[in-house]
Amino acid sequence: MTKFEALFGIKKSEIKHTCVLMPLILKNSLEAFGIKKLSRGKIYSSGNSMHFTLINTGIGAGFTGDSALYLSDTGCKDLILFGSCGLVRADKNLDIGSLVAPVKCYAMESFTDMLLKNNASGAFYPDSNLLDKFLAGKNEFQKVTCATLGSLKLEEENLDLLKEKDIQAVDMECSSFFSAAKHKHLNAMALFYVSDIINKKPFYSNLNREDETKLFLSIQSGIKSICSFIK
């Protein structure tokens, strides 16, 4: 067994041109993607539909960034990150269940830098051609500025900083994903569903039934759009 197969659960030769990376696989997601099951590796779990490879990366910048680096040695050329994000603040266009595409992502991945208030951070971007093609004719998706953070607790304590930088959404993978893809000359974009709002509807609170329904429908809509786009 090769290192790649041990890590990803499938052979390098089985990886398709487009890979969809998900930090967390939600209930009913596999069926919606048209995949029966994932093969489990030491770190990642992977499975193929007719048109793409789906990979469960696990939560965290390092895991997702590493997956892009490993995939650069396969036949994969296009990467789509699909996962959840939190809102810095809601408005008439952004709320629980909104689908958003980061057009700029600040790298604030370091727990220690956040803790010590070392706020300098670079920014990384999706592949503009891939993103533009995906968004064409899809008015329901909002473009956002994102920040990838290394702490769920410290995001609440740094809310003013996020607002000062005009950051609209936060996640835990995107900047490493964009930077790894750029480094390896892969085309990458991300699509997120809004699952929480910092200090208003936090990630650890239970959503009301209306928000739960909106979130479920947005996830299904996101999956459908990704599948249609890849086809």
Shape: globular
For this structure, the quaternary state is single chain
Q: Whole-number radius of gyration?
A: 17 Å
Helix-residue proportion:
25-40%
Major sheet summary line: 5 strands, mixed, barrel
Low-confidence stretches: none
Number of strands: 10
Q: State the end-to-end distance.
A: 31 Å
Secondary-structure-based class equals alpha/beta
Helix-strand pattern: HEHEEEHEEHEHEHHEHEH
Strand order in the largest sheet:
5-9-8-6-10
Discrete helix count:
9
Query: What amount of the residues lies in strands?
Result: 25-35%
Provide mean pLDDT, rounded.
95
Describe the structure.
The protein is an alpha/beta fold and 231 residues long. The chain is 34% helix and 26% strand. The protein has 9 helices and 10 strands. The chain has helices at residues 3-8, 29-33, 61-71, 111-115, 128-135, 152-157, 159-164, 174-183, 209-230; strands at 18-22, 39-40, 45-48, 53-56, 78-87, 99-108, 123-124, 141-149, 169-171, 187-197. Strands 5-9-8-6-10 form a 5-stranded mixed beta barrel. Strand 3 (45-48) and strand 4 form a beta hairpin. Helix 3 packs parallel to helix 8 (174-183). The protein is globular. It starts with a helix and ends with a helix. 42% of the residues are buried. The model has no long low-confidence stretch (mean pLDDT 95).
